[in-house]
Amino acid sequence: MRSGAKLAVELDSLQGRYRVGAATFDADRGLLVDPLGTEIPLRAQSLKVLQILLAHSGGVVAREELMDRVWANVVVTDDSLGHCISDIRKAIADGDHTVLITAARRGYRLVAQPLPSGQDTEAPGPAPAAIGWMPPGLRSRRLVWGLSFCVVALGAALVWLLSHPQG
Q1: Torsional class of 117: left (φ above 0), alpha (ψ -120 to 50), beta (otherwise)
Q2: 2-136: CATH, from 3.10.20.310, 3.30.565.10, 1.10.10.10, 1.10.3520.10
Q3: Most buried in the list 41, 62, 80, 139, measured by CB within 10 Å?
């Protein structure tokens, strides 16, 4: 129960907004938003992991500490924390793991920047990492559509060439 009280105090001290990869976390509202200001949904456990890492931004938080604080008095496997870390990385577009860093055999470190309180809360400007940002999954969809277009164009060219023999 002590860790629950300690967690509540840490999370209460988390105020303002933070740039986290391509996203912005609004600690006052408990929301993660993309560069366009749209809320990025996170499961409750993933949100707690993100908040704990933000409260210790720049420092390594041990895996055991994260598990004890997020799943107090509940027996879970390492996979539960792994899923949360994966959810957060996907939400903040951290495919190269430079924002949410794994400290081998120790835990995790989050690199986040507090934002000035005077910035507009509803429409944050794009972060340098957000230039060219796309929602998770959009890149792969664009690739599929692009490849599909190429296949159709090549097929049409082949049909045309076969129907118009060089003669």
Answers
A1: alpha
A2: 1.10.10.10
A3: 80
